[in-house]
Amino acid sequence: MKGTVGELGEFGLIRELTSRLTSTPAVQLGPGDDAAVVAAPDRRVVATTDVLLEGRHFRRDWSTAYDVGRKAAAQNLADIAAMGAEPTAVLLALVVPAELPATWPVELMDGIRDECQVAGAAVVGGDVVRGETITVSITALGDLRNRPPVTRAGARPGNLVAVTGWLGWSAAGLAVLSRGFRSPRAFVEAHRRPEPPYHAGPAAADLGATAMTDISDGLVADLGHIAAASGVDIDLRSAAVDVPAQMTDIGQAVGVDPLHWVLTGGEDHAIAAVFPRDVKLPARWRIIGEAARPAGRTPRVTVDGAPWEKAGGWDHFGPGA
What we know:
CATH class of the largest domain: Alpha Beta
CATH architecture of the largest domain: Alpha-Beta Complex
Order of helices and strands: HHEEEHEHEEEHHHEHEHHEEEE
Strand order of the largest sheet: 8-10-7-11-9-12-13
Structural class: alpha+beta
């Protein structure tokens, strides 16, 4: 495809984007009308939204449009799964400059579509607007299938904390890219295209998970949300988390303790859940800690019994953001 978004025009761009979409049985009416219609058998809809801003969340010299699309969809679909729901639909709001090559938003949509297919969802509509900075906003919907939602507020003292999915891989990949390298490729790709274990969220709900979250801002930070909402302390065992040998090699090369990436690196979108002690967990889950009664006034997350003193976790308005 030749030309720019401006040359293609708003409605030409919409036609190009929607022509590439697939559907699912849940979509009763897709793009093309004033609004979409998506089946909600449970009669409750789980909804979430997130934004990716060029220069803040992605760089075009590091990631292709397809990569950005996969990442934008993944971070929202993971939120749906972390509630114990099954993703059903996605809506896209896109801001792009007129001079942007028309291939970029088309490839972005390909990435969003393909990530939705992995999770069992479909793109059902959206909006496109002209603006100076590329902005990708996704709204994802899901269905609980008669399950109660698994929130952050249900953890109880004595419950075990477990995780499934990658931890620290995206942060290690970002460190590699920040130093001008493109390998080890597995870690760079983990930063460009996270692979959330979507199936694990509903499965954890069926197993009786008492609290759950996806790891978007870092393990310590996100478990801190569970600790605060549930009124419990959470102690993590550093020896229980997985630090791959190649991540250790990257850490040595750049002067970073790889455990820091595992505990504080975000954007892997692994699933962390809290379970009663008597639940037999499948092999995909790794037990990494335990919830306990708060030792002080404020619930907190500790590592090996001690506060994690090093900076970590993402805050859009925090220092260095």
